[in-house]
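Quiz preparation item.
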């Protein structure tokens, strides 16, 4: 399962099999959702536990030396596996993000401050990144839906301010942003209202893509200065990390990724810094009439607009390869993107394709290897 992860500091990792996941977690249906791997330091296995248990997700942590055993002594709710030296925690327990369990336990009392009133039931987990963040969908008693995000890094005050500045700068334009409705900095919590309309993915067409691109053009011209910078060095660093993980998962795809990385390093493309979304996906843009609302603005950066275009282009390829959109629809939308691209666009597209390949490699699913290879080979 993890045979290629030969690491002298995490010796038991490469020998892990499906049956080991069940033993480590104590749940028979445990299977891998996603891998995060830092050579020489740690491996984080985000796992699903199956429908028969209340906690549907959990995390298996591998650390160098005896850190996992020490953490097990500090966290009585955790489960330590002596055979592998791994530590298991069921969601919402997370030793790198202790405020997560507190939020889940105290959600009822926190609802008025976060979503403006009592909630209709518990927050529903949408996305969990162990040790980093969690996103919940939460319905208020009156039926209004909100999205609550929790981050280990904090910074929610700065994020709320950034969204407010974006909204002010975009007043009267064709672009808007999901509003912040609640904030709890002490727990790293920020709540957003729903974006109006439907996501681009659900209404994908040449015209819909053109509308989203006009909104992005407005974003790139806004008089705001994001705190993050996504320049050439940052993009090359991302590409190198993506290559490292892809190469561990599949040798052929790893060679394709290595070739792309060499091209990126040798191709001197200027990077023009503007405020960009930096994490554009088909589901991050909502269309309502002539207005486009962008969500997930946490990645807002100073970067090149071509990177936003390339990210959408790469996501179109994924949607096409996985059968979510037809080739004809994807190509029509892609033409809209490339008509607006700059002369160095293919450089940014290679960066975006490597990020998509990393997405597949993290899941270690053999069925996706043909898609992984094609994502890189066609670039």
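Solution:
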């Amino acid at each position: 399962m993890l045979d290629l992860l030969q690491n002298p500091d995490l010796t038991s990792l490469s020998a892990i099999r499906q049956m080991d996941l069940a033993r480590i977690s104590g749940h028979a249906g445990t299977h891998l959702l996603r891998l995060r791997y830092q050579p020489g330091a740690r491996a984080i296995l985000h796992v699903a536990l199956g429908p028969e248990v209340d906690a549907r997700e959990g995390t298996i942590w591998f650390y160098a030396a005896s850190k996992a055993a020490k953490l097990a002594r500090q966290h009585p709710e955790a489960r330590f596996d002596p055979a592998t030296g791994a530590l298991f925690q069921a969601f919402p327990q997370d030793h790198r993000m202790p405020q997560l369990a507190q939020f889940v336990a105290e959600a009822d009392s926190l609802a008025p401050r976060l979503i403006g009133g009592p909630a209709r039931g518990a927050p529903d987990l949408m996305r969990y990144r162990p040790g980093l963040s969690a996103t919940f969908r939460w319905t208020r008693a009156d039926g209004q839906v909100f999205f609550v995000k929790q981050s280990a890094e904090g910074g929610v005050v700065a994020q709320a301010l950034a969204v407010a500045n974006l909204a002010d700068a975009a007043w009267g334009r064709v672009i808007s942003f999901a509003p912040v409705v609640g904030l709890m900095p002490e727990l790293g919590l920020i709540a957003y209202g729903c974006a109006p309309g439907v996501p681009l993915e659900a209404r994908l067409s040449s015209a819909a893509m053109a509308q989203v691109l006009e909104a992005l053009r407005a974003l790139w011209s806004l008089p705001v200065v994001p705190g993050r910078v996504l320049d050439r060095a940052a993009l090359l660093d991302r590409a190198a990390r993506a290559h490292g993980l892809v190469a561990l998962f599949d040798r052929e795809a790893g060679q394709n990724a290595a070739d792309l990385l060499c091209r990126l390093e040798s191709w001197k493309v200027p990077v023009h810094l503007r405020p960009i979304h930096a994490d554009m996906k088909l589901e991050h843009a909502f269309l309502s009439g002539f207005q486009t609302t962008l969500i997930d603005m946490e990645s807002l950066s100073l970067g090149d607009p071509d990177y936003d275009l390339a990210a959408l282009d790469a996501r179109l390829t994924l949607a096409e390869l996985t059968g979510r959109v037809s080739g004809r629809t994807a190509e029509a939308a892609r033409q809209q993107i490339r008509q607006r691209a700059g002369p160095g666009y293919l450089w940014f597209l290679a960066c975006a394709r490597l990020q998509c390949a990393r997405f597949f490699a993290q899941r270690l699913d053999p069925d996706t290897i043909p898609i992984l290879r094609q994502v890189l080979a066609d670039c």
